[in-house]
Amino acid sequence: MASGQNTIPAKMTAIAISEPGGPRVLKPETRDVPVPGPGEILIRVRAAGINRPDVQQRKGVYPPPPGASDLPGLEASGEVAALGDEISRWRVGDRVCALTPGGGYAEYVKVHAGSVLPLP
């Protein structure tokens, strides 16, 4: 990771889908905090959206695409927590929102820098 990082824990709480079903199948679990690679940003999540694909994934009728997180949450907002290499537009602490490849229902989510927008 590039410089300009704050203290980030090794583990985080994420909301996972324990089995297909209703809202009660959403369960907290401990996961490793993702590490951003080149061109990626780690966001400390403050809010996450709930949309149709998240609900369909929870019901078991919309599997995550190959390579995507198994965690729900395709939209998230918060602060930049860490930067991968090759990032020049963003700084740690910037308030942002992002479209994610899944994983927004967690304390931290890793996203491609091109999917990030500034919050007003």
Walk me through the structure.
The structure is a single chain. The protein is mainly beta. The protein has a single domain, classed as Medium-chain alcohol dehydrogenases, catalytic domain (Quinone Oxidoreductase, Chain A, domain 1, Alpha-Beta Complex), CATH 3.90.180.10. It is built from one helix and seven strands.
Which blocks of ≥5 consecutive residues have pLDDT under 50?
none
The total tally of domains equals 1
Counting H and I runs of at least 4 residues, what is the number of helices? 1
Q: Tell me what portion of residues adopts beta-strand conformation.
A: 35-45%
Strand order of the largest sheet: 6-3-4-5-7
Main structural class: mainly beta
Tell me the radius of gyration. Answer: 14 Å
How far the N terminus sits from the C terminus, by CA atoms, comes to 26 Å
Write down the overall mean pLDDT.
94
CATH homologous superfamily? Medium-chain alcohol dehydrogenases, catalytic domain
Residue share in helices?
under 10%
> Which CATH architecture is right?
Alpha-Beta Complex
Secondary structure: number of strands: 7
What CATH calls the topology is Quinone Oxidoreductase, Chain A, domain 1
Element order: H for helix, E for strand: EEEHEEEE
CATH class: Alpha Beta
> Which shape, going by the Cα principal axes?
globular
Main beta sheet:
5 strands, antiparallel
